[in-house]
# Entry
Amino acid sequence: MGAFTVLQNHINGEWIASNATEFLEIINPATVETLGKVPLSSAREVDQAVQAAQQAFTTWRRVPAGDRIQYLFKLKVLLEEHLDDLAQTITMECGKTLAESKGELRRAIENVEVACGIPMMMQGYNSEDVARGIDEFMIRQPLGVVGIICPFNFPAMIPFWFMPYAIACGNTVILKPSEKVPLTLQKIVQLIEQTGLPAGVVNLVNGTKVVVDAMLDHPAVRAISFVGSTPIAKYVYSRAAANGKRAQCQGGAKNPVIVLSDADIATTTRIMADSAFGCAGQRCLAASVAITVGDAKQTFTEAIAEVATTRKVGYGLEDGIQMGAVITAGSKNRIERLIQQGVDQGATALVDGRQSKILGYEQGYFVRPTILQNVNPLGDLAKTEIFGPVLSLIHLESIDEAIALINQGQYGNMACLFTSSGAAARKFRYEAEAGNIGINIGVAAPMAQFPFSGWKDSFFGDLHGQGHHAVEFFTQTKVVIERWHDWTRQF
Ligand code: NAD
# Structure
């Protein structure tokens, strides 16, 4: 990792060594190698970054939107050129497979592409003659300095749900990567530097709670975009709101999927396995509860158990690996403890992925795919976000019971249905209480031009990341009412 052995902050266009006294090791979860150290920066360093961003804002907001997006066009090219290297970095620090890392980068790039449409997306509207000789306009203006706080599971994609839109709208940004996976964003900010973006428009401060709190409390930070677990999302949302800031905070999830007896079981199983075990179950859109209805129970259970048993688990950089490691030793222990808790509460481990050792990576944080059968629909396991490759199976007699169970849930990130019935699909789409719905889709991740629409305890705020929502979030509306007394005179 060379120059990145001890990570630096990027403030006002310069890489600056943090004056932190505490550092955390960045660990490759498959090999358990140390990849570098991340500083836990101080509130003073956040203040320096905010001041730089505030200074940069005064000139950046005056750059025409059509010129601002030129930096994004350059960034897209650089991201494409460095895709392999970035994907490798994601896999090394985050544990997912190389194909998954490339897929994540693709979604990041799509957000850059959509944000290139901002000259049109941030247009306002107007009405002539709202009263005699009086015109009224709505224009969108940038907010100023905005903070973006990221989780560990998508080190490249998640900052891009916000950052391209924020800067294209004329704001300046402070990025805080997850302390578990800070290498990817360092590399991305290096690429941003290569675009020639003016100093201070994008700043990066490494750290944990101290950095987050400093952003939440800084009077010059106008808005906060956060993605992470529900308790922290709730905390960030409350503290940001108490300080008068705009906030959009995406939280955790427990994603249910209904399998009806008229679904194509072979296709459903393949898609469901990718959803439940892809990224080792560490997606906020991972299917975690499969609810079979009627005759689907036996065929789906047998098929998914087979796929779970044969999934190739290992180091994500190696060829043919279908599932990588989970993020930390603590995470592995927690997942295994929750599996045991499920068994203690009456579930059967149809496929048990605990205590797995991968040849050559015996110290790695691996949990193999796990299927728990006969899970109590109202028990803890059916409600708790496990964030690992564990699929719980529940059987119910009707789609109505299944939708009712989904709607009782705390979270509302995603709900999916597998069926060949259009009527069932419409009913589900209409009634299911979740912000992202999949019909015969296992990971209902909205494309960049759509909002990432979590509901309930999966989202705190009103405007989501991506697309038009991001443009609205990163701009404030100004209404101008205008009259010129002498406009009818002869010129
Ligand atoms: P996390 O909540 O532990 O951390 C997220 C961010 O908050 C990190 O940058 C971290 O440094 C910071 N943080 C942690 N503790 C804090 C505290 N006490 N005060 C202030 N800041 C704090 O989340 P994670 O483990 O990195 O990510 C996994 C979680 O994120 C899962 O719950 C997953 O469902 C969720 N997630 C949600 C979405 C979504 O779109 N809804 C997307 C990805 C991940």
